Amino acid sequence: MAALTIAAGTGNWFSALALGVTLLKCLLIPTYYSTDFEVHRNWLAITHSLPISQWYYEATSEWTLDYPPFFAWFEYILSHVAKYFDQEMLNVHNLNYSSSRTLLFQRFSVIFTDILFVYAVHECCKCIGGKKVGKELTEKPKFILSVLLLWNFGLLIVDHIHFQYNGFLFGLMLLSIARLFQKRHMEGAFLFAVLLHFKHIYLYVAPAYGVYLLRSYCFTANKSDGSIRWNSFSFVRVISLGLVVFLVSALSLGPFLALNQLPQVFSRLFPFKRGLCHAYWAPNFWALYNALDKVLSVIGLKLKFLDPNKIPKASMTSGLVQQFQHTVLPSVTPLATLICTLIAILPSIFCLWFKPQGPRGFLRCLILCALSSFMFGWHVHEKAILLAILPMSLLSVGKAGDASVFLILTTTGHYSLFPLLFTAPELPIKILLMLLFTIYSISSLKTLFRKEKPLFNWMETFYLLGLGPLEVCCEFVFPLTSWKLKYPFIPLLLTSVYCAVGITYAWFKLYVSVLIDPPVVKTKKQ
Amino acid sequence: MEKWYLMTIVVLIGLTVRWTVSLNSYSGAGKPPMFGDYEAQRHWQEITFNLPVKQWYFNSSDNNLQYWGLDYPPLTAYHSLLCAYVAKFINADWIALHTSRGYESQAHKLFMRSTVLIADLLIYIPAVVLYCCCLKEISTKKKIANVLCILLYPGLILIDYGHFQYNSVSLGFALWGVLGVSCDWDLLGSLAFCLAINYKQMELYHSLPFFCFLLGKCFKKGLKGKGFVLLVKLACTVVASFILCWLPFFTEREQTLQVLRRLFPVDRGLFEDKVANIWCSFNVLLKIKDILPRHIQLIMSFCFTFLSLLPACIKLTLQPSSKGFKFTLVSCALSFFLFSFQVHEKSILLVSLPVCLVLSDIPFMSTWFLLVSTFSMLPLLLKDELLMPSVVTTMAFFIACVTFFSIFEKTSEEELQLKSFSISVRKYLPCFTFLSRIIQYLFLISVITMVLLTLMTVTLDPPQKLPDLFSVLVCFVSCLNFLFFLVYFNIIIMWDSQNGRNQKKIS
User: Fold this and answer.
1) CB–CB of A29 and B388 under 8 A?
2) For the packed helices A426-448 and B4-22, what is the interaxial angle rounded to 10 degrees?
3) CA A163/CA A338 separation, integer angstroms
4) In the predicted structure, residue B246 carries a pLDDT above the cut 70
5) How is residue B28 annotated by DSSP?
6) Does residue B38 fall inside a structural domain?
7) Distance, in angstroms, between A422 CA and closest chain B CA?
8) How far is B394 from chain A (nearest CA, A)?
9) By mean pLDDT, which of A82-86, A226-230, A473-477, B69-73 is the weakest?
10) Residues B420, B423, B429, CA angle at the centre, nearest 5°?
């Protein structure tokens, strides 16, 4: 009996939370899945049936392998389990194959690899300060944090409905953050290097890692006012860090270097042929820019400033084309977005260098890097917002100001994921899960910080409440109106612009708080 | 309530689980010519919408009673009619007379599923929330946990959202009835319960405890004074609500009789399919269904049912208490399920509902019972291809119960409510101290058998000579468990009142 008690984890709230969400994921197995399902099936087939030299050349399917080598190896390993489920899914020419066993295997592979994520959350909870020990379990920061991470709405719908493998990748990232918090810098650097070779989107936050490790690990001491002490530079640490990164990269890219395929690999990893924005504009700065351009062109036409014949057709008929041509404002080039991104990231990096505040400062910088590149990046996916939301959860339970930014960011960011699921059976699921997460995060953080000033001012409250009517308009009222056929893109456009306002606001607020925050912690570290 | 947000979260979790289960297959999906309960409900919409009330229960060229004829009371028919109006607004093909037979499409499935969700949201879920809020002597947190566990009960979710039925309506009305009667709003309570009976005749399983409890209340107030007034009021309420529901069928004698014949199909035999009651399990040893004539079977099953529920009902009439009422509901419904005539495997839900209500009183035994009840429907669920959601929701329910009630730590005699029973046994048998340990071992054995049988049913092919081997085994094992529970609940009821008297003596 006792053994059963322990096995069932009596009173262990963390395992109950983790098991609960795992079971929910299992219930989501029969839901809609996107083309990403076929993408990953195809990669299973490629890695299973072709030699390494073919992996980055194979192009039978339009979904070619465009993730770094470690991910390919990951698929390779999975494929050796997959063959016991259904051999047919491992055939490269079996396009759009989705038997029920294939579905089961792919869904379970995501659920299973999420174990890493659960472990990472467990580690993060350990290193997040338990200063405020409330009387009740539900009011403890650790409990709230683990719910916010484990039951994250975005991760649930992107991974377990839409279908992707973000869970274990974010697990790696959170784990490496946790290791940095625990002062196990080498491990943290190693994990991040591995992560980069799984999915290169994490390059966005690499500056934060680089600067933090250089400043707070390679320099072993600070002056009494917190500024850098140049003679404390440790060559051993730099070299060991470099060695770790180099070895990981060698392991990943080495085989392709040997095959002389590196240019091909890189051309697959960084395709610049796509447009500025995805079909559905991710809610960032460029969404606002595009919307402004549209408004100006409409006004221009009305007031006869513009000649209707000179306007590119695509921009007027639909907002759904990939190549968006601006009519009034100057068009944006990849280089311009790169420069904007760099400019946006720089202040936070400076902050990290000149005002080091330990791992918390690093975490803020990491979030700012992620958010800034989301704001100004080229061809950003709406899913990339998770890169900012998940680390931000760690901050949110620490300070009321951060909690406020977090809530605005997550609520709008999660809402902006709604267009990912557009099928009718999934509509109740996304609304229910969104309500579940939003109500929980707002109420629990409000309870946690009830002694401080309110988390939202009237404007923010009004904005967040506006999401409700927006959803009703876009998904319930609009399909019944006559505009549905004429302007099918309006709901997406409204969603994108509305969310872009919120995310820009959150980004701005967080930036201001980081820049004006007085460096308090530095006296501790001498 | 300061914890309103946790309550909202809990309800949202319940709804999410319900909707995700509803994405799975339903009974009779793509299986012509008869399909299943899903088609039955759709067919009733078709019938009620297209035919005049007078023809609903009669066989005719437009209404073939052999093909899912209406055999539920009028309230179900009205509900179908209401749904049919909505269906007509969306797509008239769904309910077209004759041509819509066996209609199946993704959109239609979505529509049917949402009607279940809406009915559940309007009737059952509010009743559960309110019931748990009215519970006394437990903390707010425990109340919320209780709501979560009740809402996660897998049996009801799987039958309503997987197999496809509207049990949450009748059970929800019954729950409103329990709520009303135990909060002393007797008239509202009896009205709600009448609605429950008029939605589904199986609610009669619960009727005796309601009757006895209310009668006991009247006795307690004195039959010559206030009690008599209450009795008259109650009688009027019941009669009025019945007349209201049956109004269109009271115009002619033949109408009423035909509805009653449809509701109680005596000629359908002692039991159908495989059901975990005494008769079906006993049938393995001796084919009573074929040996005995029909009327003997009827009398026999009546006698057994009556005898098994008599003690509890008498006790309740003499000593009405809301706690005793809940336990009597359990034992009566269980007696009906085990011994009465023409029982379906889904009727176990009628026992599960009152067991859910005593979840906070005896968490260990209730959880165990609810697990067994879900297991007893395994053959049905497998037929509907609901293995995955069944396993997942059962595990979720189990984990929720373990986490919130720490059931394994609540196995002492005190917490099993067997203290007074074992004290009285110990008067004759002083060495009787192992009761709680025996129950723990029984639980372990029961769970292991259930897991093993589930695994065997899913993975192994039954031998050719005995194609029903596993489903019969499932029924047999569940039946043994249920018999044990019947004894247990009767012991609690019988000894509980004594305990109360003892306490009064002490105080």
Assistant:
1) yes
2) 160
3) 29
4) yes
5) T
6) no
7) 14
8) 10
9) A226-230
10) 145
Q: What is the pTM of this model?
A: 0.93
The dihedral region occupied by B461, where left means phi > 0, alpha psi between -120 and 50, and beta the remainder, is beta
In the predicted structure, residue A130 carries a pLDDT above the cut 60: no
Measure the CA angle with vertex B72, ends B70 and B76; round to 5°. Answer: 95
Residue A4 has pLDDT above 50, yes or no: no
If you average pLDDT over residues A276-300, what whole number do you get? 85
Residue B51 lies in a domain: no
* Domain hosting residue A435, numbered range: 285-331+379-516
Phi, psi angle pair for B315, to nearest 5°: -55, -45
Distance CA B148, CA B129 (A): 9
Q: Is B89 exposed, middle or buried (0-12, 13-18, 19+ CB in 10 A)?
A: exposed
Kindly state whether residue B99 falls inside one of the protein's structural domains.
Answer: no
Contacts of B63 (CB under 8 A, 6+ apart): B47, B51, B55, B56, B69
Residue whose tokens read 């049913």: B457
Adjacent-strand bridge partners of A228: A222
Residues A79, A81, A82: CA angle, nearest 5 degrees: 60
- Distance (Å, whole) CA B330 – CA B417: 15
B293 domain-assigned: yes
| pLDDT > 90 fraction of chain B, expressed in percent and rounded | 65
pLDDT at residue A439 is higher than 50: yes
Q: Which residues pair with A380 in a beta bridge?
A: A277
From chain B, the residues in CB contact with A425 under 8 A are 23, 106, 110
A430 and A295 part of one domain: yes
How far, in Å, CA of A525 to CA of A229, rounded? 13
Domain assignment present for residue A207? The answer is: no
Asked if B162 and B389 touch (Cβ cutoff 8 Å), the reply is yes
Domain assignment of residue A356, yes or no: no
Same domain? A148 vs A294: no
Structurally, chain B folds into a number of domains equal to 1
H-helix segments, A34-161: 36-49, 52-55, 69-82, 100-127, 141-150, 153-157
- Integer CA distances (angstroms), A32 to A161, A386, B39, B226, B393, in order: 6, 21, 25, 61, 20
Q: How far is B153 from chain A (nearest CA, A)?
A: 14
In chain B, what percentage of residues exceed pLDDT 70? 97
Give the Cβ contact number of residue A412 at 10 Å. 24
The number of domains in chain A is: 2
- A338 inside 8 A of chain B by CB: no
Q: Which two tokens stand for residue B75?
A: 């309230």
Nearest CB to B16; choose among A8, A11, A429:
A429
Looking at residue B84, its pLDDT comes to: 96
Q: Which residue has the higher pLDDT, A493 or B125?
A: B125
pLDDT at A526 over 70: no
pLDDT at A522 over 60: no
Find the domain containing B293 and state its range. 1-29+104-497
d(C-alpha B455, C-alpha A61), whole Å:
40
Instruction: State whether the Cα torsion B418-B419-B425-B426 is positive or negative.
Output: positive
User: How many whole angstroms separate alpha carbon B7 and alpha carbon B143?
Assistant: 9
For residue A497, is it within any domain? yes
**Residue A317: band (very low, low, confident or very high) from pLDDT cuts 50, 70, 90:** very low
Q: Which residue has the tokens 């392998």?
A: A65
CA within 13 Å, CB half, B370 = 31
- Residue pair A301/A328 in contact (Cβ under 8 Å)? The answer is no
Substitution target from A107, A148, A436, A440 for chain B, most B beta carbons within 10 A: A436
Nearest Cα neighbor of A162 from A64, A25, A345 is A25
